[in-house]
Specification:
The structure holds 2 protein chains of 2 kinds. By secondary structure, chain A is of the alpha+beta class. In chain A, 39% of the residues lie in helices and 18% in strands. Classes of the chains: A alpha+beta, B alpha/beta.
Chain lengths: 489, 180
């Protein structure tokens, strides 16, 4: 009989991921609880501030995608003031965003997710990082990654007005016009980015897909979950990172719902569990059935893979070809294998680069018409964008002066709390049987977690293979039977 | 009376090493903002005194919220780097200490590495492998705290009290290469 044990939510961040696994009488996994630390008090911090501060303030929630928060905040502030920015302003925001996306996806692939694959599953831990990748693929790769990052940062600064943390958006548009000289530079960098994206996809096909061990891992069952998938789509149901409607498809790939930002609360609800401060969003109109797969469970995922699954294709030609190859190789839509997220990310990288050039060559991109002064009384608004890690929602309520009275954010990773729980649980179950813990547990769990590229990593300091992680395994009486640690003092 | 020239002890070393001081952290995340506050005070003191720094070797002070590769990219072109950051270690809040980047043992500098990126140590190796000019010497000045996960623009009292000490240590490192 399994005893009830209470787990207190972690009150002090210990700097590492913490999983508690409970065994049943047979020594198999009964339950596991993966605790992810959370930053707290943001709503309280914002109340009383003018809403136009939010594109600057929310930059600082998370050091990883300040650009994403800036965009969601900008759109939410527009919505609060009931103002629609001029076309050029929206294009410039989106252009900045494409450059950011290209940089972020590149960095993730080469520095973070890629090493898990490129080095091979049997490579020593010490080699499973970007240095190992450089030595294996060639020195020039490191140079290209740095170059891509440099271009991305340059575009963000040119349009956004500041390195990394853009400050250009205000309600009604932006504050900086693009010069023709800047435009030319941005176009040139974008064309380089397209070539780099194509190179990266080819490298992935040559190194990863050609490696049977990895292909088996990608398509295998241990990292597979059949859930709902969410992503922003444009009017043609093609993937869009900056604007559009939120579309959700069911585990069979059929459209389940499609809604505008302002209606998100009709579709998403958050579930509270006693063992963590985090809440678990789920689809309201399906209902919460626990941490399980399937059409009857309201659990959904929001990641690059989800975006591809939730769409009917990519809006640019080379990315569309990559999208078709992706699904043809993996056996059709939707794809449920979580490790395919890494490949989906590369399809998106290509789209970001192509769309970067499309925007940079639009005749209106250098127009001076970049701001429309709001005239209506501010009330309430929602801004939704796709952060690289998932759908990002900013919801603000203000008084009649535009001073915030309420703030609600659902960040990219929050959408995935339940899927992350399920993935790590499944990894644990496959490796703990009859009380025997397979040594590969730590690595398998880390790979499960890493595919989601979570925002608030359990450690803000981890390389692939070096994520500080502590797994505590308890028998049915709650007594600790084993503790596995990596990189924890 | 002979004219008195104030010279930096470093002026006898030729050429002058260029130095960057980086305040790391998030200024709206409570004690996580201590790196910025220390760096800003260092800058103010340097601007004020203008002591012994020939034009050819200014000390640059930056504040940023970056880790890994992005942080490495900020250090390009400098000979020495001093990074000020909040640390989550088992010390009383407001303890100030110094550590070389190569000695960083327990991943407790919250911004020298990132789960989305790579550790600063690795990023420095990558940069050097690419032939980029990076500091030979990277020193971290840490201030310990526990209040790093709640949004606030204020430092807690113990951490605020540690700021002058941290500032002095950074200035000592700049002028003498030592913490004293």
């Amino acid at each position: 009989m399994t005893q009830r044990i209470s787990i207190d939510p972690i009150t002090r961040l210990e700097g590492h991921g913490k999983i508690d696994i409970f065994l049943d009488d047979k020594g198999d996994v009964a339950n596991s609880y993966f605790q992810i630390p959370e930053l707290r008090g943001f709503e309280r911090f914002c109340v009383g501030r003018p809403v136009e501060e939010m594109p600057l303030l929310t930059n600082r929630i998370c050091g990883v995608c300040p650009e994403a928060h800036h965009m969601a905040a900008a759109k939410a502030a527009d919505a609060v003031y009931h103002v629609d920015p001029p076309r050029t302003a929206k294009m410039l925001r989106e252009l900045l965003y494409m450059a950011f996306y290209a940089t972020d996806h590149t960095t993730h692939f080469y520095a973070l997710g890629g090493p898990d694959f490129i080095m091979g599953p049997d490579a020593p831990v010490a080699e499973r990082n970007i240095l190992g990748v450089i030595h294996k693929v060639g020195l020039e790769i490191g140079g290209k990654v740095i170059q891509m990052r440099k271009y991305g940062h340059t575009v963000v600064e040119m349009i956004g007005g500041r390195k990394v943390h853009p400050c250009t958006s205000i309600p009604g548009g932006i504050t900086k016009i693009l010069s023709e000289d800047e435009r030319k530079q941005i176009e040139e960098m974008g064309r380089w980015a397209i070539d780099f994206a194509l190179f990266t996809i080819q490298a992935f096909k040559d190194i990863v897909l050609a490696n049977k061990t990895y292909l088996d891992l990608i398509v295998g069952d241990v990292y597979t979950h059949r859930t709902y998938y969410m992503g922003l789509v444009d009017a043609n149901n093609k993937v869009n990172f900056y604007d559009g409607k939120v579309r959700v498809v069911d585990p069979d790939g059929k459209e389940f719902c499609k809604y505008e930002a302002k209606d998100y609360l009709n579709h998403i609800e958050e579930r509270v569990e006693p063992w963590t401060y985090l809440k678990f969003p789920y689809l309201k109109n399906v209902g919460w059935k626990g941490f399980t797969d399937g059409k009857d469970s309201g659990v959904y995922m929001a990641t690059p893979l989800s975006r591809l699954n939730a769409s009917d294709g990519m809006a640019t030609p080379k990315a569309q070809a990559a999208y078709e190859e992706f699904y043809a190789t993996l056996g059709g839509k939707p794809v449920h294998q979580r490790l395919a997220i890494h490949w989906a990310r590369l399809v998106e990288l290509l789209y970001a680069a192509e769309h970067w050039v499309e925007l940079a060559t639009d005749p209106e991109i250098t127009s001076p018409n970049v701001h429309k002064v709001p005239t209506e009384i501010p009330t309430e608004g929602v801004g939704i964008v796709e952060a690289p890690r998932g759908t990002l929602t900013h919801h603000y309520t203000t008084d009649e002066r535009g001073v915030l009275t309420k703030v609600n954010l659902i960040v990219g990773t929050t959408n995935n709390y339940a899927p992350i729980q399920m993935s790590t649980n499944k990894a644990a179950r496959s490796l703990i049987k009859g009380g025997n813990v397979n040594e590969g547990l730590l690595n398998m769990v880390e790979m499960a977690f890493r595919a989601y590229d979570p925002c608030f990593g359990c450690a803000t300091h981890s390389l692939p293979g070096q994520m500080p992680l502590e797994i505590t395994i308890r028998n049915p009486d709650g007594e600790i039977v084993d503790v596995l640690k990596q990189f924890v003092e | 009376m002979l004219p008195v020239t104030v010279k930096s002890p470093l002026s006898s070393v030729s050429p002058q090493p260029s130095i960057i001081v980086v305040g790391l952290g998030n200024p709206i995340l409570g004690d996580d903002g201590v790196g910025w506050i220390v760096a800003e005070e260092v800058k103010r003191r340097l601007d004020e005194t203008q002591t012994g720094f020939p034009q050819s070797s200014p000390v640059v002070v930056e504040c940023c919220s970056l880790g890994g590769l992005s942080l490495m990219e900020q250090l390009i072109g400098y000979d020495r780097a001093i990074i000020v950051d909040a640390f989550a270690v088992d010390q009383p809040a407001g303890t100030v200490f110094t550590i070389g980047i190569d000695e960083l043992p327990d991943y407790s500098s919250l911004h020298a590495a990132s789960v989305h990126d790579t550790s600063l140590q690795n990023a420095l190796v990558i940069g050097k492998t690419m032939g980029v000019h990076l500091p030979e010497e990277v020193t971290l000045v840490g201030v310990s705290s526990e209040q790093l996960y709640e949004f606030s623009e204020e430092l807690t009292p113990n951490v605020a009290a540690a700021v002058p000490q941290a500032v002095q240590i950074v200035l000592n490192l700049i002028f003498t290469g030592d913490t004293k």
